[in-house]
Structure formats: structure tokens, C-alpha cells
Amino acid sequence: MAVSLLVSSFAAAALLFRITPSRNANWRLAIMQSALWHGLLIVVWTELLSYDRALTATTVTMLWGWLAGIHAVLLGYRLRQRKARSAIVLRQAVKQLAVTPHHSQSALAIERIIIPVVIMSTIGLCLLRGWLEPPYNYDAMTYHLPRVMHWIQNHTVAHYPTHNLRQISFAPGAAYLLTHLHLLTGGDYGDNCIQGLAFVVCILGTSLIAPSDQKHSQVLTALVCASVPMAIMQASTCQTDLLVSCWLVCAAYFVLKPEQSLPDWWWLAVAIGLAIVTKPTGIIFGLPLLMVQAWRLLMQSRQLCLRTLLHSLFLPAIVLLAALSLSLPSYGRNLQTFGTPLGTTAGTTNTLVSFPAILSTILRNLALSLPFPPLWQWIQAIHQQFLGLDVNHPNITYGDNRFDIDNLWWRILLPEDENFVGNPVHLLLIGVAVGMLVMT
Q1: In the predicted structure, residue 135 carries a pLDDT above the cut 90
Q2: Of 10, 89, 317, 344, which has the fewest beta carbons less than 10 angstroms from its beta carbon?
Q3: Residue 93: what pLDDT?
């Protein structure tokens, strides 16, 4: 199958990144870099091919065959140069698997066997379900897959007449990946696996963010990420939340890594750019990361003055502009059709903007992850007595997603779909972590 070209290219690129001389080189980082590299190429290639209506199975297959060949040649050349080092790396990897004396046998069994098996089983089941089941959820049927089929039929991602404006208005990043997969496989095989693979990158990235000198913390961090209920539910669907989370996790890693280099700025721009082109809300989470990066630059300066302040803001601003450049073609099409870069919201945004409305949204979203009847009753009382808003005000409630306390336990035991899965344990862990940060 032609999709093997994409798989081969990804694997060869990951191997290249792994054996490239770098102080922080490891398999998890190599997989993240390969994911970012291929995500960037898919977005750029899709836009370039669409310009001349050349988005066809033939051209896409030729491009991936060409890239897989280049990666294979570079990998062979690098392996010939690094034979000695590869042997050393292999011996070091074997030594790391050896039992160290300062750990008990039970701790090592949990850390190196039980937890990895649990994580891999979770991922494996998500990917298996995603491969066996065709896409069937509401968003996939109404706009994710229809626009992919229109693009393939038209040989371009240009806007087209449609009754569902979400197909042409919403951010196209995830659909670009689906388009390439459809063109390479000839069908919808693996459409649900994109989110599952993004889940894998999320787990690897969060484990890398944890302190590297404490191996048990990285394992536990991976377990916490792999056990998020909503992530597990979405990992076998055509939604886009895990994919944008994947890119944001990559961005967070390059911002928070202890020692940074110039290439890290490149990867940061790519990660934030892919997050924004996947979902515009990615910029809401990307901006704080860039602010942290600017703060780090400012703290590394020997003296605080206007010049150092401008310098610390200049590089993050360049990264933001580079990241936004990936979305410029999509913004241009929306501007021409709708008169605004983001296009139509299709009723997905609040039309009532006020402090009570914002507080209402926060409280109701917290309630989804804390399914306790007394809490829901307390939230209802706050709305009635203090906020002066209906708990299901139509201007701040999407569709028929009502705050219904009578069906609370039914929703917990049998959630309607992956959009209404609570994460109570993880919310409590976030609260504990925030409390500890405040206390320290």
C-alpha cells in the first residue's frame, strides 16, 4: 500500500533524529521531532498542491515516495558514519535496563514492567479500535470527512458551495492529515488512528517534560497522561482535540527544557504553528508558552534594561509570526469568503460576554469533571442568587447540552459521547499541584 511510504518516511526520520549528535537525543524526542516534521510537510504540501489543483493520489504518492527515499539515503549515510557510536548507544541502552541497587525489586517491577504494560495496553486498544471501526461520530460525519472528500474530488482545498459552513470555515490542519491518509489508502482506513497516534506523542512529550534525573517521575507522568478518560475516549475518533494537544505538548517541551539551543526555537515555531492551524484556540495556550520563553530570556540577561526587555520579546514575537504563517492561506480564503480570517463560528462561541457569563462557564465545566450532586446544586444556587443567569442560558450554552442535575449519574455511567467525559481524578491532581506551587 502507498501508505507504507508515509510510515517508512516517519520511521526513517525518527531514526535520523535519534542518531544525530545531540545532548538530549532519545527515542521519545526523536518521535516528537519526526511528528512535527511530517506535520509541517503535510500542511505545506497540501497548500502548494492545491494552488495548481494537483492534490491527487498520484502526486501525493510520488511526494511521499521521494521523501521516504531521501530519508532512507540520509539514514544509510549517517549510519555508516556513526557505526561506532551506534554500538556505544546500544550498549548504554542495555545497561539502563539493568537493575540498579538503590531500587527495590517491587519498585522496579512497577516502574519498568507494570506501568509500561498498562500504558501500552491502553494505547494498543485505542489504536485497534480506531483501525477496526469506521468514523461515525457527529463531527466526523458532518464536516471532518465531507470536506476531505470535497478536496479530493476538487483536487484543491479551495472553498466550495456547502450548506455546512464548518466544512470550509473551521481550521483545516487535522483534515489535511486525513486527506493524505485517504489519498494513500484509498479509503477511510486509519482515519480514527490519527488521534490515537497523537495520544502517543502526548504521552511521550509529557514524560519528557518531567525531571530527567528522576526516572520514576517520568513514568508516573506518562501514566497520568495515558489515563485521562476524555483522551482515551477521543483517541479512536476523528476529533481534533488530541491532535492540537499533541502539538502543544511538543511546544511545552521545547519551552521548558533546561538547556535550549537555536534549533529549539525552530521546533517551537513549528509546534505552535501546527497547533493553531489545527484549532485557532491553540493560540490561547501557545501565547502563555511564548510568554514563559520571553521570561526565561529576560532572566538570563546580565542586566535588566529596556534593550534586554525588547530582546526577550523579539524572538518570541518572531516565533509567533512564523507560527501564524502556516495558517495564512486558510485565513486568506476565509477573509475572501466571510470577510474575517477565522470565518464563521457556527454557533460555537458565547454571544454573551460578561464576568457572570465567564464565571458560569468555568463553574459548569468544573461540574462536568466533579460529578457530585451537592456541587451541582451549589452551582445552580450560585447562578440563581449571585450571577442572575439561567444555568442553561442559550447565549452561553451550545445546542441542547443542558446542565441537568436529574440525569447526573446516568451521564457519568453512560456518557453521551467523548465530549462529555469527566476527568475527576486528574482535576483533583491539578488542584493539589496548584496548591503545592502556591505553598512553595
Answers
A1: no
A2: 317
A3: 46
pLDDT digits (tens, 9 = 90+) for 211-223: 876 667 888 899 9
Range in 92-106, 118-132, 244-258 the model is least confident about:
92-106
Buried-state track 126-146, b at ≥16 Cβ within 10 A, e below 16 = bbeebeeeebebebbeebbbb
Buried b or exposed e, range 280-292, using 16+ CB within 10 angstroms: bebbebbeebbee
Q: pLDDT confidence of 199, banded at 50, 70, 90?
A: very high
pTM (predicted TM-score): 0.89
SS (H, E, C) the chain: CCHHHHHHHHHHHHHHHHHCCCCCCCHHHHHHHHHHHHHHHHHHHHHHHHHCCCCCHHHHHHHHHHHHHHHHHHHHHHHHHCHHHHHHHHHHHHHHCCCCCCCCHHHHHHHHHHHHHHHHHHHHHHHHHHHHCCCCCHHHHHHHHHHHHHHHHHCCCCCCCCCCCHHHHCCCHHHHHHHHHHHHHCCCCCCCHHHHHHHHHHHHHHHHHCCCCCHHHHHHHHHHHHCCHHHHHHCCCCCCHHHHHHHHHHHHHHHHCCCCCHHHHHHHHHHHHHHHHHCCCHHHHHHHHHHHHHHHHHHHCCCCCHHHHHHHHHHHHHHHHHHHHCCHHHHHHHHHHHCCCCCCCCCCCCCCCCHHHHHHHHHHHHHHHCCCHHHHHHHHHHHHHHHCCCCCCCCCCCCCCCCCHHHHHHHHHCCCCHHHCCCHHHHHHHHHHHHHHHHC
Residue 283 scores a pLDDT above 70: yes
> What does the block give as the cell for 1?
500500500
CA distances from 347 to 83, 128, 343, 357, 396 (A): 58, 34, 12, 16, 10
CA torsion 409→412→415→416, rounded to 10°?
40
